[in-house]
């Protein structure tokens, strides 16, 4: 819902810009020449910005309760070293090597606030970062850290823009709590209006949460 609404708004603005530019460049003589040229170029520039904004917007996904936004499985490959598998709703898998004892996922979220929030529209999200950490404070300070960017680079960063502008669309960072890494542990990650929520899927993950791994 949110993704479709924002895309439609941006597309509508582009159509209006193209119509206005066409009228100004092909319209009646009373349009002052320099005004036509300057305004037309500025509006075309604005249209390009909106196109890039749409390209950034489509990198986000609409949150839903089912199925999980992501499934995370960890496989031990060495001393405090794990092969981490991330599988999204489409079945696309990414694998990363994390060092440490726990993992965490960060997501950029866009959600309605104000009167529109009463529609209970699920937020948009885009995975931003996967990181690991050590339980030992000494190791956390001295050992090599593992962190990966999950976001695609874009010409326009809508999330940063809405973080400054605000209004009825709020940009915020959602972070799952640190989860334990254990050989064969699988977790389901959900994106909700309250943020990122992680749940154990198998017995290995449940035991790891209890500190039995």
Describe this structure in words.
A hairpin with a 2-residue loop joins strand 10 (185-192) and strand 11. This protein folds into 2 domains: 2-57; 63-209, no CATH class. Helix 1 (2-26) packs antiparallel against helix 2 (33-57). Strands 1, 5, 6, 7, 8 and 9 form a 6-stranded antiparallel β-sheet that branches. Strands 4-3-2-10-11 form a 5-stranded antiparallel β-sheet. The protein has 5 helices and 11 strands. The chain is elongated. It is α+β, with helices and mostly antiparallel strands and 213 residues long. The two termini are 41 Å apart. The chain has helices at residues 2-26, 33-57, 137-142, 158-165, 203-209, and strands spanning 61-62, 70-78, 81-88, 93-99, 102-112, 124-133, 147-149, 169-175, 179-180, 185-192, 195-200.
What is the arithmetic mean of pLDDT?
79
Low-confidence stretches: none
Number of strands: 11
Instruction: Tell me the count of domains.
Output: 2
The number of distinct helices, counting runs of at least 4 residues, comes to 5
Shape: elongated
Overall SS class: alpha+beta
Strand content: 25-35%
* Helix and strand run: HHEEEEEEHEHEEEEH
Largest sheet: 6 strands, antiparallel
Distance between the termini: 41 Å
């Amino acid at each position: 819902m949110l993704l479709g609404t924002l895309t439609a708004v941006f597309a509508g603005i582009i159509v209006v810009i193209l119509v206005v530019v066409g009228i100004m460049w092909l319209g009646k003589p009373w349009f002052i020449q320099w005004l036509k040229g300057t305004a037309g170029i500025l509006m075309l520039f604005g249209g390009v910005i909106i196109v890039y904004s749409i390209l950034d917007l489509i990198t986000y996904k609409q949150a839903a309760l089912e199925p999980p936004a992501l499934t995370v499985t960890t496989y031990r490959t060495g001393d405090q070293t794990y092969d981490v598998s991330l599988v999204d709703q489409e079945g696309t898998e990414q694998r990363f090597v994390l060092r440490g004892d726990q993992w965490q996922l960060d997501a950029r979220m866009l959600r309605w606030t104000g009167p529109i929030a009463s529609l209970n529209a699920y937020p948009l999200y885009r995975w931003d970062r996967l990181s690991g950490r050590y339980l030992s404070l000494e190791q956390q300070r001295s050992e090599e850290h593992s962190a990966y960017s999950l976001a695609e680079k874009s010409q326009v960063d809508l999330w940063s823009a809405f973080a400054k502008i605000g209004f009825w669309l709020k940009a915020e960072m959602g972070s799952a709590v640190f989860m334990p890494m254990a050989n064969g542990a699988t977790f389901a990650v959900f994106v909700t209006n309250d943020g990122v929520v992680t749940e154990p899927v198998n017995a290995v993950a449940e035991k790891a949460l209890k500190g039995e791994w």
